[in-house]
Design goal:
34% of the residues lie in helices and 23% in strands. It has helices spanning 8-11, 62-69, 99-105, 121-131, 138-151, 155-158, 171-183, 201-214, 227-233, 256-261, 266-272, and strands at residues 24-33, 36-46, 51-55, 79-87, 90-91, 106-109, 189-193, 219-223, 236-241, 249-255. It has one domain: Rossmann fold. The longest helix is centred in the middle third of the chain and has 14 residues, at 138-151. The strands form 2 sheets. It has a 6-stranded mixed sheet, with helices on both faces. The structure holds adenosine-5'-triphosphate.
Length: 277
């Protein structure tokens, strides 16, 4: 069965790998914008069912690395890359694999909440089904909307106004709606690029709670500038650095607790303790 004729049942957990958290492995990933090399042979394992935080100063290549993890980098004109990205051992860049397949399995939540503002909350959640060619009955969609809004921590707040437009929600609610929309196609990995940087502290706390609730159900990779947030939400951390115009590399990675309390590299210690960046 091809993507184009997938049914909602096929996308449900237990029927296929859909929704089963996967390990993501970057192997010697390098990236360029034109002649400008911005990442140099970055390797990192992001374990299934865990939260991995990517930290480091501005411009060291964290967002570029994240975009490479779900094949968004190649959409940028003049962008190129080398290396491999393995999703449970299968290279998402293999010639035979479609870009839409990688995107469906590896979802993305952006810095600025980007719901479809005029579309209802209900339709926002199920929007990805059509785009991915997933068929669902009306009751299947109803169940999916409730499930995904619940998992994203938004159901109780919006269950009585599912026909209101996405743009009518607060920024924090919009971000949780975007998380629900990502979850609806049952990704195996969820990438989050500074998902709280446009939000107030209360909304930030709600997103962090949502991340905690989702961890274990989906592999999460999050870029954050907020060291307290990295310490609160992640199991593992990778510290990126691009020194004096050189391409970004990972200086150190490992369990978050060790990265914050017993880092091996003095540059990691300086960064996590706020001495630069
Ligand atoms: N679309 C683009 N075209 C050209 N260069 C780019 C593009 N996007 C990023 N870059 C360059 O790639 C390098 C890495 O940028 P990237 O956004 O990945 O870093 P970052 O660590 O995520 O930064 P920040 O924390 O500020 O978001 C920077 O030198 C940046 O200027």
């Amino acid at each position: 069965m091809t993507d184009a004729t997938t049914t909602f049942a096929d996308a449900a957990p237990g029927r296929s790998t859909a929704g089963t958290p996967a390990t993501l492995e970057a192997e010697a990933v390098s990236a360029w914008f034109g002649d400008h090399k911005v990442l140099d042979r970055v390797s990192l394992t992001m374990p299934a069912r865990e939260v991995t935080a990517l930290i480091g100063p501005s411009g060291c290549g964290k967002s570029t690395f994240l975009r490479i993890l779900n094949r968004m980098h190649e959409l940028i004109a003049a962008a190129s890359l080398a290396g491999r990205v393995l999703l449970d051992g299968q290279d998402i860049y293999d010639r035979g694999r479609r870009i839409t397949q990688a995107r469906r399995q590896i979802g993305m939540v952006f810095q600025k909440p980007n719901p479809f503002p005029a579309m209802s909350l209900y339709d926002n959640v199920v929007a990805g089904l059509k785009l991915n060619g997933i068929k669902a009955t009306r009751s299947g969609k109803d169940d999916l909307v409730e499930e995904c809004l619940t998992r994203a921590g938004l159901w109780k707040e919006v269950k009585d106004r599912l026909r209101q437009p996405g743009g009518a929600l607060s920024g924090g609610q919009q971000q949780r709606l975007c998380i629900a929309r990502s979850l609806a196609v049952r990704p195996r990995v969820l990438l989050m690029d500074e998902p709280c940087s446009a939000l107030d502290p209360t909304s930030t706390r709600r997103i962090e709670e949502t991340i905690a609730e989702l961890s274990g159900e989906v592999t999460i990779v999050i870029v954050t500038h907020n060291m307290q947030q990295a310490a609160r939400v992640s199991d593992n951390c990778a510290f990126f650095l691009a020194e004096q115009g050189t391409p970004g590399v990972i200086v150190e990675h490992g369990p978050t607790d060790a990265m914050f309390h017993s880092p091996q590299d003095p540059r990691t210690s300086d960064y996590v303790n706020g001495r630069f960046g």
